[in-house]
Amino acid sequence: MIVDSIQQLQHFNSKAVFLYPILRDLRVHSKVNTVIGFVVIDLETRNAITISNNHPEGIWHTNNLEFLNNSIVYCYNTIALKYAGYDTSKYIDVMMQYYLYTNTGYTTTTPNIIQHYTRVYPNCYRINELVSLCKHEQIAQEILQECWVKEFNQDYHSTRMSY
Q1: Which end of the chain lies in a sparser environment, N or C, as judged by fewer CB atoms within 10 Å?
Q2: Domain count, the chain
């Protein structure tokens, strides 16, 4: 669901969520890349929302993630968010947890639609602006399905809360 008002974000307050930042182009280094949106997935219900941050398809744009201040945030790409100026000190890096649990790095394959646009427009470095926000939401759901290690996160969450 694409967010069109701030009231839709209140559902995710004080929950465990998965945060997937949408970058302008995956071929560009995070230091010079721009975050054009976010996908937030409630880990209990797996309901997702997509927030536009200057994506052309977005109705309501924001770069404010303060609605997640009371939430437990499992973030897919904390490095990109750090380069974009977001405070990720309270976010839990999903890729690092995957590595700690499996002893292998999590590698993604570029989704077919992004590969298609990259082939059609090789000199365009705004590929993810061409991809629909709904498709980005689907990509985030697939990444969560592949890299989410439930057993590790349950153990980590319970030990983290006991301090």
Answers
A1: C
A2: 1
42 is a domain residue: yes
Contact 64, 74 (CB under 8 A): no
Order of strands, sheet of 48-52, starting from the edge strand that comes earlier in the sequence: 48-52, 35-42, 16-23, 72-75, 92-93
Q: How far apart are CA 107 and CA 90, in angstroms?
A: 24
| Structural domain includes residue 128 | yes
Question: Would residue 122 count as lying in a domain?
Answer: yes
Q: Is the dihedral of CA 128, 132, 137, 140 positive or negative?
A: negative
User: What range defines the domain where residue 138 resides?
Assistant: 6-157
Q: How far is CA 18 from CA 15, 64, 82, 127, 155, in A?
A: 10, 16, 16, 23, 17
Selection from 5, 128, 115, 141 nearest residue 55 by Cα: 128
pLDDT digits (tens, 9 = 90+) for 116-145: 999 999 999 999 999 999 999 999 999 998
pTM, two decimals, is 0.87
Residue 162 in domain:
no
